[in-house]
Amino acid sequence: MIEFRSVTKEFPDGTLAVDDFSLTIPSHRTTVLVGSSGSGKTTLLRMINRMVDPTGGTIEIDGVSVASLEPVKLRRSIGYVMQNSGLLPHRTVVDNVATVPLLRGVRRKKARADALDLLDTVGLDRAIADRYPSQLSGGQQQRVGVARGLAVDPNILLMDEPFGAVDPIVRAELQQELIRLQHELGKTVVFVTHDIDEAFLLGDQIAILREGGRIAQLGTPAEILAHPADDFVASFIGADRGKRALHVESQDGSDVLVDADGRPAGVLVGRRSGTGPSDPSGSSDLSSRARSDAALDVTAEGLPL
Amino acid sequence: MNYFTDAVAWLLDPAHYPGPTGIPTRIGEQLLFTAVTLLLASVIAIPIGFLIGHTGRDRGIAVATSGGLRAIPTLGLLTLVALWIGIGLGAPYVALTVLAIPPILAGAYTGFEAVNRATIDAARAVGMTEWQIVRHVEIPLGLPLLIGGIRSATLQVVATATLAAYIADFGLGRFLFAGLKTNDYAQMLGGSILVILLALVLEGLFAGLQKLVVPRGVAVGRPPVDRKASTRRRPGMESAITKGI
Q: 20 to 30 A Cα–Cα from B125, which one of A199, B12, B207, B244?
């Protein structure tokens, strides 16, 4: 569990990036910090591994204040995945993945073997192990970045807009991959994005941030969709534009969900006719989300039908 | 034309080769002098350059200082130091070290600065110490530009080292100063040709070395070699090194 308590960050130039921010991030769940630029979301993320130190308040991981931990040691215990992968261009894929274990003193042979296993985990072919990052596609680089983040088997995985720089098709693939991974690994994921659809797709808990790190609304995707806290949230999630306001139209005996512009967004299954996935457990929920795209995801759990 | 053939004849005369004043010995002295000067300059300039490049601080001071050092006329400095510490090799070492520092300093810090900030940030975020960032990220990625700086310094030092002979019995400059005194233009020109050849050989070696130190992962990511495009791409950086600012 990660706890922010009245955290404030004022940069030396006087910019107040985060002002009195408090949030509890539960373990083994994905918490998404979503907001536009200037909302302080990246600053908040980077305060967890002390890449940024707060000027006020405390951050605790499982009851231990991060300020009392040595930054390098702390960072080596937390996975970090960033936009544009941040891989070392002069090291091969396998060496990049093994970077942190080697720093922690794991033997070379074992680190390499573990790194190869991790390539499997993130869905990469072992054949690319000895290539350099510049020889990979953007999507492959991001997967390597995720593998590196997982290399020390951290409890916490920080992801800073990891899929921001890849094209939409690859992004969708990577998102599904992350859902699958998270289903298997159950890490405490803190994910930063400006893309609300991505937030709804990946987050168990979502914090919508306004400028200065003020939380406009905190909740599950369903809660936020059902009851946007204010106009800002409604506008941010697109509810005011009718994108999320779906209604049911009957079409040859099927219930078709249609948005406010009259465009079909999906088909309603399960809860009315009893033929779809009705298992209420989280795992079925995850797998159904993994198969559906973002729009269908909204129909499946976002509406009080 | 006569001077040139005379110079070639002088170069080919076997009588000019043996002994402590022969051509091989003088070349050896010139090389030794160049090497020691570069070593001195590197010991001073590289750590400072790395520190500036790593922290991004005090860059303005470094630019101003190295620009100032560049503006000092080497012969004037040589004379000044010689008057102070006397005849011998001490003064040339000081004067040429001052000459060699700016390009090496510029190579060191531009090399570090050229490393992608996001790469360094990521290295820090996964838990590298500052020293590990320098050693495993900034040095390997900045090495080509550092070598470029040393290459530029070498060229200047090996040519200007002829001045050492002005106040010491040392190096290829002896042929120039001796020839000047006795109006032996064949010897002067022969000596000059030797200096030029030596400079070209060193330049060639460094050009090769500079290519060699480009990390493989960086080299493979580059588009096929297009010399014109690649020199045009970073005009600021290249000129910063050659001018030493």
A: A199
